[in-house]
Design goal:
This protein is an alpha/beta fold. The protein is built from 5 helices and 5 strands, in the order E-H-E-H-E-H-E-H-E-H. The chain has helices at residues 16-27, 42-51, 73-77, 99-119, 159-170; strands spanning 7-10, 31-36, 60-64, 82-85, 123-126. Strand 2, helix 2 and strand 3 (60-64) form a beta-alpha-beta unit. Helix 4 (99-119) runs parallel beside helix 5 (159-170). The longest helix has 21 residues, at 99-119. It is globular and about 50 Å long.
Length: 171
């Protein structure tokens, strides 16, 4: 493993994709800071990283930050070279109002991008999903490109997929 002095902020540290991203970053020698809604999640993350083979946690930092407010986002970016914006709200139940999922996704993405810009972060990578581009793409003979947005008002589109397309369009 090559030790790097570069630090990556990974948003949404308790999520499936985030844990795998953190594992890969640590295995490649990066320092990682991750956001969590509560620092009580640290032990859960340590356990998942340990299950992935990580034994030294000295290059892992945590900071409380929530997509729904500005608290700690500027601090989260300090000394970070890169950001992997993975956090996005997902509910095990259908939200009563779709804005419960859409507003944190859209506003949170803009909040992360603004804080990264203000901190001079070199690059932000934002994860999304097929739902942001694929559901309105009906021509199976053409490629899906950055112009291939899913229509957020498409009948039958889940609130989660709607939140992803709107957050990506906002970015």
């Amino acid at each position: 493993m090559i030790q790097s002095n570069q630090k990556v902020l990974v948003t949404g540290g308790t999520g499936f994709v985030a844990i795998h991203s953190i594992l890969q970053l640590l295995n490649r020698g990066y320092k990682v800071r991750t956001t969590v809604r509560s620092l009580k999640s640290k032990e859960k993350i340590f356990e998942m990283l340990e299950n992935g083979g990580i034994t030294d946690f000295s290059d892992v930092e945590f900071i409380e930050a929530d997509l729904t407010n500005d608290n700690n986002w500027a601090e989260a970016m300090i000394d970070c070279d890169y950001v992997l914006h993975i956090a996005s709200p997902i509910f095990l139940r259908l939200p009563k109002n779709e804005d419960e999922m859409i507003r944190p996704a859209v506003d949170g993405t803009l909040r992360v991008l603004k804080a990264a810009r203000d901190a001079g972060v070199k690059r932000v990578v934002m994860t999304s999903n097929f739902g942001a581009v694929g559901y309105s793409h009906k021509d199976k003979n053409s490629l899906i490109t950055e112009e291939s947005w899913t229509n957020p008002n498409e009948k039958g589109l889940s609130t989660y997929n709607k939140s992803k397309v709107l957050a990506e369009q906002a970015a």
